[in-house]
Amino acid sequence: MVTRVLRTGTPATTARQVAGTVVDPELPSLTLADLGVLRDVRIEDGVVVVEITPTYSGCPAMGVMRADLVLALHRAGFAEVDVRTVLAPAWSTDWISADGRRKLAQAGIAPPGPAPRRPVGPVPLDLGPTRRTADCPLCGSADTESLSEFGATACKALRRCRRCGEPFEHVKEI
Amino acid sequence: MHEETVYDALTGTHDDAAHWAFGSGFDDPLAGVDTTVPDGVDAADLGGYCLMLGDDALVLSQRLTEWLTRSPELEEEVAFGNLALDLLGQARLLLARAGSVGFLGRSRERATDTIPHEDALAFFRDPAEFRCSALMAADGGDFARTLVRLLVAATWRLAIFARLTTSRDPVLAAIAGKGIAELRYHRDHAARWVLRLGDGTAESHRRAQDAVDAIWPLTADLCSPTDVETRLRDAGVAVDPREVQEEVREVLTHVLEEATLQVPPWPGPTPPRGRLGQHGPEVAELVGTLQSLARRHPAATW
């Protein structure tokens, strides 16, 4: 199986296009680029250098992402690929593209709202019920409630729609 | 070099055909990160400090996983799994950072060559080589004690990490910057539970107060700096834990008062113990469980 990529531009452009097709192992309807995990693709001395950033410190998918990127680029004819981790600045859900948000909603996952501001100095305590809101990705109702602050992956919480009754996942804002 | 499957690509990222059966294997969390030690910083101190923060996360993660299959409700089971995963991720980064500066203790004498540094540190150190504080390693106790400990641990760690974002070690600063959003979520989750328990039924209030009374004295060990922390603080790398004491106290007092719980007196200073590897028997037991399989089959591969 060979991934077909239209070779019209420079090798760097092609490498970027190829890396841009690699999807997230846990959210396969989104590419790593949609998620803001893919930070840079460039060519240094004939080596494709790819920079990715983890969503959460414990993201167990980094190894698979790295392998998927290497595999896709090898298949496209790039012999040498160096996938580097960048830790700073820390990933934010604000980096999920408009396209990525649309794809999340289509997959039945409520996209995140704006990430909380990163405070300078002490991080304010939040004791109230979570103010997070998310529209139901199935019926569109804004009348939804929190089921669980944690979900099947580190990046998601669980909510339920009060109108249609369906539970759904929501990408938490960070 | 054309792999047919992702599995080939995964295995192809190392030269060795076989991978160690336990731990993180093929995935170096600091792959491609510049791990040069900053000028004027002692590598052994930096490694030791990363182990303190890494071991705190590792043992607390292990304590939280003790709840899996035993949690009072499914949502909390999922919560504990997620909290533990975040902490394990922080531990991996910090242990890898310690390994990257060559701070490995006796772990390399016992681990085979193919085992990455972070796994050698996690699985092949003896309990006395662990630098976790007493708070993180204490027995989990009941649900209330688990949540009160998590509240104190996350509040303290958040305050430390917030300051570490300006550390002169850019790797440590990046790890801290990444952990802040996670720890904030942990702290606020624990705080909401402490509110529910303290301001709940007579039984939940009693248990929450017992938990607070048992956990409070353990903060002394957390706030006693070792020589390593003091030296690294002067070098602009680390935080003196006494600097965050007031902020931590304020947050905790606020939560406890809202939860109608009595705030015990803050313990006075004591010489550091956990950071120097002086632990109670609970650490040996925890480490024994964590390492049992790896120690029994140190050369197992897949």
Distance between the termini of chain B: 22 Å
Mean pLDDT over the residues of chain A: 90
Nearest-integer average pLDDT of chain B: 92
CATH superfamily of the largest domain in chain A: Fe-S cluster assembly (FSCA)
Structural class assignment of chain A: alpha/beta
H-E order of chain A: HHEEHEHEEEE
What is the CATH C level class of chain B, in words? Mainly Alpha
CATH architecture descriptor of the largest domain in chain A: 2-Layer Sandwich
Oligomeric status: heterodimer
* CA radius of gyration of chain A: 18 Å
Q: Beta-sheet strand percentage of chain B?
A: under 5%
What is the CATH superfamily classification of chain B? Ferritin, core subunit, four-helix bundle
* Poorly predicted sequence stretches spanning 5 or more consecutive residues of chain A: none
Number of strands of chain B: 0
The interface involving the most residues is between: A-B, 47 and 61 residues
What coarse outline of chain A follows from CA principal-axis ratios? elongated
**What level of helicity do the residues of chain B show?**
55-70%
The largest sheet of chain B, given as strand count, sense and whether it forms a barrel, is: none
CATH class of the largest domain in chain A: Alpha Beta
Strand order, largest beta sheet of chain A? 4-7-6-5
Please, could you describe this protein's structure?
The complex is a heterodimer of chains A (about 170) and B (about 300). Chain A is α/β, with parallel strands linked by helices. Chain A has helices spanning about 10-20, 30-35, 60-75, 100-105, and strands spanning about 40-45, 45-50, 80-85, 110, 145-150, 155-160, 165-170. Chain A has two domains: about 10-85, GMP Synthetase, Chain A, domain 3 (2-Layer Sandwich), CATH 3.30.300.130; about 100-120 and about 130-170, no CATH class. In chain A, helix 3 (about 60-75) links the parallel strand 2 (about 45-50) and strand 3. Chain A is elongated. The N and C termini of chain A lie far apart (about 35 Å). The mean pLDDT of chain A is about 90. Chain B has 13 helices and no strands. Chain B has helices at about 5-10, 45-65, 75-100, 105-110, 115-125, 135, 145-165, 170-200, 200-215, 220, 225-235, 245-260, 280-295. The mean pLDDT of chain B is about 90. In chain B, helix 7 crosses helix 9. Chain B has one domain: Ferritin, CATH 1.20.1260.10. Chains A and B meet through helix 3 and strand 3 of A and helix 1, helix 3, helix 7, helix 8 and helix 12 of B.
